[in-house]
TrEMBL record:
<keyword id="KW-0269">Exonuclease</keyword>
<dbReference type="Pfam" id="PF01367">
    <property type="entry name" value="5_3_exonuc"/>
</dbReference>
<keyword id="KW-0238">DNA-binding</keyword>
<keyword id="KW-0378">Hydrolase</keyword>
<dbReference type="InterPro" id="IPR029060">
    <property type="entry name" value="PIN-like_dom_sf"/>
</dbReference>
<dbReference type="GO" id="GO:0008409">
    <property type="term" value="F:5'-3' exonuclease activity"/>
</dbReference>
<dbReference type="InterPro" id="IPR002421">
    <property type="entry name" value="5-3_exonuclease"/>
</dbReference>
<comment type="function">
    <text>5'-3' exonuclease acting preferentially on double-stranded DNA.</text>
</comment>
<keyword id="KW-0540">Nuclease</keyword>
<dbReference type="GO" id="GO:0003677">
    <property type="term" value="F:DNA binding"/>
</dbReference>
<dbReference type="InterPro" id="IPR008918">
    <property type="entry name" value="HhH2"/>
</dbReference>
<dbReference type="GO" id="GO:0017108">
    <property type="term" value="F:5'-flap endonuclease activity"/>
</dbReference>
<dbReference type="InterPro" id="IPR020045">
    <property type="entry name" value="DNA_polI_H3TH"/>
</dbReference>
<feature type="domain" description="5'-3' exonuclease">
    <location>
        <begin position="13"/>
        <end position="275"/>
    </location>
</feature>
<dbReference type="GO" id="GO:0033567">
    <property type="term" value="P:DNA replication, Okazaki fragment processing"/>
</dbReference>
<dbReference type="InterPro" id="IPR038969">
    <property type="entry name" value="FEN"/>
</dbReference>
<protein>
    <recommendedName>
        <fullName>5'-3' exonuclease</fullName>
    </recommendedName>
</protein>
């Protein structure tokens, strides 16, 4: 007696998590043309380019229309890391020209609202940590794509979580576990340890002086972490001695680099495809900015 075959559950759509400030900065300073209102009185580059780059990424780099959640840095994001080390990101310029993208933020958020794209921010959290939490609460096997040029996200990479860096050449924009290892000779799980040793200039984390990427990867070979190094003989000779002398600092930097997966976030992935974005000119028109 034959039994009926139940249909398999449909594949969930991909989840695209967008680092909003990262995209806005790239849109404002990296777009090839300046965009202004028709009367030339308003600069619109950041708004126009934000939606242009997001639309192109969805259309050309994802094989299926995703659910999109844009995450922005909170006003006091990073304050917890600054309590650990006051020099965290202290090198970043704060003059009006450097902060020009901020002027576009309200209109970008309005545009996202008008087109049904979910966005979120927590006052005291960086986008990295919110995205890390959203990755944690999204059950497998759902595919997750993190759109950002920030390599801190490499520590989130797994077989189902990839980083999309649209500044890279086509064919090389996706970073999976094998790509992290091929390029840096460490695994995503070792990323925070690796960057603690080499430093992260973008976040003003100096790393251990004299330890470059090659030496760091050699010290961390075979899946070692900073904790493994402490009880090994790899720090007894050569440049390893530099690490032993500053191992406490390296551990502090590693803890700062590690993303927080345990935030109380105000949004939850719904599992439904987001609306298709229209052309950026149409979005700007709808915002009444032309």
């Amino acid at each position: 007696m034959g039994g009926s075959v139940l249909p398999s559950a449909p594949e969930p759509c991909p989840l695209l998590l967008v680092d909003g400030h990262n995209l806005l900065w790239g849109a404002t300073f990296g777009f090839p043309a300046e965009i202004r209102s028709r009367d030339k009185t308003r600069l619109l580059t950041g708004v126009f380019a934000f939606f242009a780059l997001l639309r192109v990424a969805i259309r050309e780099d994802l094989t299926d229309q995703p659910e999109v959640i844009v995450v922005f840095d909170g006003q006091y994001g990073g304050s917890d890391r600054k309590e650990v080390d006051p020099t965290y990101k202290a090198q970043r310029p704060t003059d009006p020209a450097a902060l020009a993208p901020i002027q576009f933020l309200p209109d970008v958020k309005r545009g996202l609202d008008q087109h049904g794209i979910v966005w979120t921010e927590l006052d005291h959290a960086e986008a990295d940590d919110v995205i890390a939490t959203l990755v944690r609460i999204t059950p497998p096997p759902r595919e997750i794509v993190v759109m950002s040029r920030d390599r801190d996200y490499y520590q989130l990479v797994t077989d189902r979580v990839r980083v999309l860096n649209t500044k890279m050449h086509p064919g090389k924009r996706y970073i999976g576990p094998a790509d992290v290892f091929t390029r840096h000779q460490v695994t995503p799980a070792q990323w925070a340890d690796f960057r603690a040793l080499t430093g992260d200039p973008a976040d003003n984390i100096p790393g251990i002086h004299g330890i470059g990427a090659k030496t760091a990867a050699t010290l961390l070979a075979d899946g070692f972490t900073l904790d493994d190094l402490a009880s090994s003989d790899r720090l007894d000779t050569g440049r390893g001695r530099l690490v032993r002398e500053q191992l406490g600092l390296a551990r502090k930097w590693r803890d700062m680099i590690r993303l927080n997966h345990e935030l109380d976030v105000p949004v939850t992935p719904a599992g439904q495809r987001s609306q298709l974005l229209p052309a950026p000119a149409e979005i700007v028109e709808g915002l009444g900015l032309w």
